[in-house]
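Quality-control log, excerpt.
Job 1 of 2 completed; input and output follow.
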Amino acid sequence: MSEPTPTRILLVDDDEPKRYLLGRTLRRAGYVVEEASSGAEALRRSLTRPDLVVLDVKLPDVDGFEVCRRIKSDPATRGIPVLHVSSTFVDIEDKVQGLESGADGYLTSVAEPLELLATVRALLRARRAEDAAELSARQWQTTFDTISDGVMLLDGEGRVVQVNRTLERLLGRPWSELVGHGVPAILGGDEPARAIFERMLASGERSSRDVEHGALWLRVSMDPIRDASGAVRGALCLATDITGLKRLEVQLLAQAHRLQEDDRRKDEFLAMLGHELRNPLAPLAHALELIATPELPPDLATEALEIARRQVRHMSRLVEDLLDLSRITRGTIELRRQPLEFRPIVAHAIESTRPQMEARRHEFAAALCLDALPMDGDPTRLEQIVTNLLNNAAKYTEPGGRVAVALVRRGNEAVLTVRDTGIGITPEMQRCVFDLFVQADRSLDRSQGGLGIGLTLVRRLTELHGGTISVFSEGPGRGSEFIVRLPVQAEAPAGSVAGPSDSVAGPSPRLRVLLVDDNSDSVKTLAMILGLRGFDTRHALDGPQSIAMAAEWRPDAVVLDIGLPGMDGYQVAARIREQAGNACPTLVALTGYGGTEARRQALDAGFDHHFIKPVNLDELASVLAASAPRGATGG
């Protein structure tokens, strides 16, 4: 009888003291130990097919994971058991990496001889098939317990044979409640899960479906397990938690819907804008045609002029709305704060909108408290809030209806309420009435007009003042109520103002104004208007001409366009200031460029005032009238 072949173990470790201790332990147990100190040497020696490789994870040339992978991928050595050892082998990622590289076991503490020998004997028994079934189950559990997906083995009837810990966690049930049950029972009785299994059985191919399980969404995938003849005898089932993915999908769909809705509103807005801009052009053109008619009766000429003025004011408001829209979308609306009293601002807004109420025969009521409402705010923007709300009420209230405005003080708040008996607002519309381009009336006649940005601007201006706005309506045909709440100060600040003023100081006939604009019609008509108001005017069409005229005529004020040919308005202003020295006239920028940046650039260039075309003539005249006369004579 031949002697049994001694068991050979290849010990791979670059740490000589640790290799010596491990080797001595294994030799005392009767094993033949061969040693290697590098990955390359281990791969060479593995070709002699030892019975077991004890492999350190950290090696100087090729790490233990790669050495293991190469051993397991080589047909000549793939049957050799590999035991990873490492004193720092503690992270689950390391464990998974080791198992995925093909290792048959691992030890994180190699200082205990009994544990080392027990592990070695177990791995050797596995190779010799002494306890193949037990080892297979243990390897399956060890491997799949590290997988982040839920894993279960099914038999040919769809009953659960084995599960991993991740599946227990996902389903919130221990393995004892899962093994032996069918797939539908595991997934809460969902029939689709059974359908996945039956489809896999019928096709013999992988099958999957997304299944809702309580608060989770699981992607259930089943791969067939075949016997030696190729028949499907069971399945390997993976349950992946895709709840986060589903939530993201819902968010993306909602975002896509919002973008689609925004795009639709923008298209409607552009169509609306074309309509609103064309509307005033027709009566304006007709009025100009009438004025140009020879021997036109004076009363018709006066009426035609009033029509032209009204339509120009309307177009100016549309342009201002568009500029405000740009400021809203870019977040560049800024307030010119000053101490003020809110009540006179509300009263002025009421008076400015009263003609619109009267034209539609509305029954109008106003109740303004007598309490002090001191604020730190922008009087123009505050009046815009009130005016937009009143215009909105008048627009959407049928002729003969009622509009009421109330102003009270409640603690540290001024509460402004605007009620009407108009068309009302649906619950759906109330949720988005302050959004851009939203209007209750989408009819083709567009009889109410407007661009659908007024309430958006009201909300933004209110928020910039530290306030809030809300809306309430009982539904279509039952009117609306808007409530604005603005913070007020405890006491009226020193030097508070009552609000916008209509007074315009009368100009001195000695005041000389030089007008500079390359648009001949614009500069000539402005010169005519200012001349009728008592100013002595001259005009120039470009920069060099205006500089020479300013040096010769020595005006008290220069109204200067920015977009001039050759020299722009900023350069012209600098030259005029340079040549005039301390006797520099008041410089007024009159331009089509609006916004905070354009205003800042004008003031930085030396301008005293900045106006946007078309200018409010009363405001321009007031600024010019305040210019100090230079007292010079000229030709």
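Job 2 of 2 completed; input and output follow.
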Amino acid sequence: MEPKSRIQSLTKLLEEANYKYYVLDAPEMADYEYDHLLRELEELEAQYPQFASANSPTKRVGGKALDRFEKVEHAVPLESLQDVFSPDEVEEFDQRVRQSCSDPVYSVEPKVDGLSVALEYVDGVFTRGATRGDGMVGEDVTENLRTIRSIPMQLEDAPHRLIVRGEVFMPRAVFEELNQKREAMGQSLFANPRNAAAGSLRQLDPSIAAARKLDILIFNLQLAEGKEFQSHGETLDYLRSLKFKVIPYELCRTLQQVQAAIVRIDRERYELPFDIDGAVVKLNELSQRKLLGSTAKFPRWACAYKYPPEIKETVLQEIVVQVGRTGVLTPKAVVAPVRLAGTTVTNATLHNQDLITQKDIRIGDTVRIRKAGEIIPEILEVVLSKRPEGTSPYQLPEHCPVCGAKVCRDEDGAAFRCTGSQCPAQLSRNIAHFVSRNAMDIDGLGESIVDQLIHKGCIKSPADIYSLELDEVKSLWKSGEKAAKNLLAAIADSKTRDLSRLIFALGIRQVGEKAAKVLAKTFGHMDALMAASVEELTQIRDIGAITAENIVCWFADPACKEMIEALRNAGVNLSAEQKQVDDRFAGLTFVLTGALSLFTRDEATEKIEAFGGKVSGSVSKKTSYVVAGENAGSKLKKANELGISVLTEEEFLNMLA
């Protein structure tokens, strides 16, 4: 088969598999077969990029990062709904509707607790997706929406222009898994799936959104050129026929049926795989909607019934302290089992010492508890009238419960942290960071392999990686010796990394990639950095007093010194790469815009900064050059208005030559 035909065939086949798996929940293709076909498509697109579709299944994993989100004016406003909180208010809504409409029929639907977006299709092809924003203007999040596998990239028999509205959400199971990983890494937890979904959809790097496994339910037809419909239910059925994942709905002809549907959705809400915070009641007939119209804020033909959070009392039996991979001590309340929001709760988050002190939470207290965002159990307050005699205020331990090292409070926050550099609770996280792509970049040392090596006692610090032997690692994979040899080769290759990567890999608090590059460039060798004082470090641009203190304290730790010596003895490079200085772009500011085909934005940025220039995300009078790719928009227009020099990609490459 010709490459173009094969690419088209694979694209259609994989999208159909996505539809059956993510929309119908009825997969027919095995994961192995899907992955095999996806790899074939990736290889063909790399070889024949002229035949690759912008909506290819290969784009589902996330493309290149953006510098910012462009504004989008909605063709049809994305209105919000008026909230109601009681059956009486629902009855008042019905009475207002009946004053203008005879025999109204309502559609009652779950109100998904997520982030509202509009999806736009032209000639059946997904072209743009935007957040709701203020209802009139949102943000272009097209690249992130491409990663949601339940969104069809191409529609059959669709009108010339189609716009639909949906709610992006994070499934409960995905949310729980994400928070477990964040807790293990010592990162702050998302309060609820809605916050997690919103944060994921607004990531400038689409690969992060792809990893978060977002989903969507379509709940409204905004525009369908050339199509006419009589009712809302008819539009939803039409969208379902186009293979959208559509919100379930129930048609009700009386107020009593509406009230019963609201109660039923509430009763069944915890059996759903996603969060809801209410039920939406809408007029079904579109002509009646047009008759009622909208106020300045809300449509008159719909309302959103909000469910109150469920609150229960239970007894706090114990407070256990967990140590995350950054050394942060996190207290957790163990409570007497209580049924709450559809599940049995046995523990609740306490966040930190400040919260415990503020609410005066003590072991033995009766507490009122609820699920924050219907997911994470939290203690609202103590029932002081039921406090037993003899209780005392709770304080986090002064020594780490895992390794016994002293615990110190962060100067710049509420966290209490273990100071033990060799604390087992932190080891896995430290090594995972050390081998990560932007640090020593050791391919093959994933989280599970690292955990196995720690469990077997093969590694007790990042430096031990360089003393691993074939017999120690070949049993970690089914493929055995071949994978082990590949890993050892990757480890050997990492010894030549630049000093800046090694400094970043050490995981010194507040020393990120940028600071690591500055330190490597300033000191040139690890020994010089180790000998630096706080005073010397604070003289360096981008290195503040707290960061300088962290650096000096880290290198003063005997265990850290021992690790540096072990790295030296293993042959790991401790010197900065010596580069010939070329500051041809010194004092110049570049703006990159449009679709770049000859290089990525990251590659262009790296070159500009290497030659002393600066890259900005917006055009101003201070901009020196705008590098414009295909479909350059508002930035190019503004550059022309200000008389700023505009470069093609070829002209930019000539400047680099």
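Post-run check on job 2. The longest strand covers residues 311-323.
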